[in-house]
Design goal:
The protein is α/β, with parallel strands linked by helices and 473 residues long. Helices cover 43% and strands 12% of the residues. It has a domain at 102-347: Type I PLP-dependent aspartate aminotransferase-like (Major domain) (Aspartate Aminotransferase, domain 2, 3-Layer(aba) Sandwich), CATH 3.40.640.10. The N and C termini lie far apart (63 Å). The structure holds pyridoxal-5'-phosphate.
């Protein structure tokens, strides 16, 4: 055995010990990193060391310099944004992936990477009740998948001419989403050359969901005024408050006007593994594409985005490119996933999914998701009972949005200031981490309850702390 691999074995065992201890002790760290700007930067050497260094020394610096600058996303007291979960089967698979160091760009560059990915996407598609004739492919992020969707819509609508000739003759495209949809839609529209000015943000109703009547009105007005409605993005679970756009009504409109329909379920999509939520995607058969992130609520390390399309040929026709150096004997017989999206190189991400889906099983995943939703329900009940806190919007799945309102006599400005102060105190305590949003100018605290190993005890402690700190401000 080579000296190099023996050294690796020794260090790897030490690292795994550290990893297991970290998972055990993650609650001991301040959830949100408490360092000041540039505090980490100034501790890092100003250039590449001339002489190689020992792994022991680098590892010591990792513990001493890097860890204080880490926000502990895997802490069960992390309730900010949406979760970016890991789990033990996923981390184990990441270790194998890193070791193989495979590029899954073409079938021939690692057949197992392509074929396992095909199977994993079928597993998810069928368990989530997506249409049986759709095809899935893994992307790095939901942002990239949404960009791929907008580009595919553009190419299909222009008969693949924008790809060859540029925009000549294809001006005035319009894309529609609600005022509450994720910023990645606007980014995608900008990158796709459609122009931010042609992204129409449809007002929402009192549940923060897209108003389908206004969508129809906007589309018909645009047509009258010489625009070409290209694509509608419907959100199943908005980032602010997890609002659900009315997919069925939106799909009727896009069908009638022959408009591409993309569904962004980046976070909430995982809950489609629960049959009781599957009617949220009624009408999906009339959509063209759907994205969700197993790297959020499905216990799979970032990155792993599942992107499903009705017409895989439209996707491949948008992206395929075949220079001489990429030609292989099996082209045309197999899927070459480099033609299914933007990057050429691709990590072996399906390996993580395989480990996660097999290790938990559908039943285990469903139990976890339902448990997180129950915990959110518990907190919702406490808030309703409290008298001093109010729900900002009804709880949606595992997201609870609320604010502190100690009396009816304070103005909205005073209330907002109180809640901002409360949030800052909570986060600088290091004990829990929440983030905020605004709904109708009201500052609200969001508590997303979906960390892999969160228990009722964590929610009780968090709720006690929220009340205790609120009393003191
Ligand atoms: C998180 C999120 C995104 C972006 O996801 P990335 O994978 O980070 O690009 C898009 N849409 C919604 C609704 C999200 O919650």
């Amino acid at each position: 055995m080579s000296n190099e691999s023996e050294k690796f074995r020794t260090y790897a065992h030490q690292f795994v010990d550290w990893m297991a201890d970290y998972m055990n002790d993650v609650e001991q760290y301040p959830v949100k990193s408490q360092v000041a700007p540039r505090e980490i930067y100034h501790q890092i050497e100003t250039g590449i060391p001339n002489e190689g260094e020992r792994i022991e020394d680098i590892f010591e610096d990792f513990k001493k310099i890097i860890i204080p600058g880490i926000t502990h996303w895997q802490s069960p007291n992390f309730f900010a944004y949406f979760q970016a979960n890991t789990s033990t089967p996923s981390v184990l698979a990441e270790m194998l992936m890193a070791t193989l160091g495979v590029q899954g760009m073409k079938w021939a560059t690692s057949p197992a990477s392509t074929e396992l990915e095909e199977r994993m996407m079928e597993w998810l598609r069928d368990a989530m009740a997506l249409p049986k004739d759709w095809t899935g492919v893994i992307q790095d992020t939901a942002s990239t998948a949404t960009l791929a969707s907008i580009l595919t819509a553009r190419e299909q609508k222009s008969d693949y001419e924008v790809n060859t000739k540029g925009f000549a003759g294809f001006t005035n495209f319009r894309v529609y989403c609600s005022e509450e949809t994720h910023s990645s839609i606007e980014k995608g529209v900008k990158i796709a050359g459609i122009g931010k000015g042609n992204l129409v943000k449809i007002p929402t109703d009192d549940t923060q969901a897209m108003d389908a009547n206004l969508l129809l009105e906007c589309i018909e007005n645009d047509i009258t005024n010489g625009y070409h409605p290209l694509c509608v993005v419907a959100a199943i679970g908005t980032t602010g408050t997890m609002a659900m756009d009315p997919l069925k009504e939106i799909a009727e409109i896009t069908k009638k006007h022959n408009i591409w329909l993309h569904v962004d379920a980046a976070y909430a999509g995982s809950a489609l593994l629960l049959p009781e939520y599957q009617d949220l995607i009624n009408g999906i058969e009339h959509a063209d594409s759907f994205v969700f992130n197993p790297h959020k609520w499905l216990f799979t390390n970032f990155d792993c985005t599942a992107y499903f399309v009705k017409d895989k040929d439209a996707l491949v026709n948008t992206f395929a490119i075949l220079p001489e150096y990429l030609k292989t004997k099996t082209d045309g017989m197999v899927a070459n996933h480099c033609d299914w999206g933007i990057p050429l190189g691709r990590r072996f991400r399906s390996l993580k999914l395989w480990f996660v889906l097999r290790h938990y099983g559908l039943k285990g995943l469903q139990e976890k998701l339902r448990f997180h939703i129950e915990l959110a329900k518990w907190l919702e009940d406490e808030i309703v009972k409290s008298g001093e806190f109010e729900l900002a919007v009804p709880r949606s799945m595992n997201l609870v949005c609320f604010y502190y309102k100690p009396s009816n006599d304070i103005s909205i400005e005073q209330q907002n200031q109180l809640n901002e102060k409360l949030l800052n105190r909570l986060n600088s305590s290091g004990k829990i981490y929440l983030t905020h949003t605004k709904v109708n100018n009201v500052f609200i605290l969001r508590m997303s309850i979906g960390r892999t190993n969160v228990e009722l005890a964590h929610i009780r402690k968090a709720w006690d702390l929220i009340q205790e700190i609120a009393m003191k401000i």
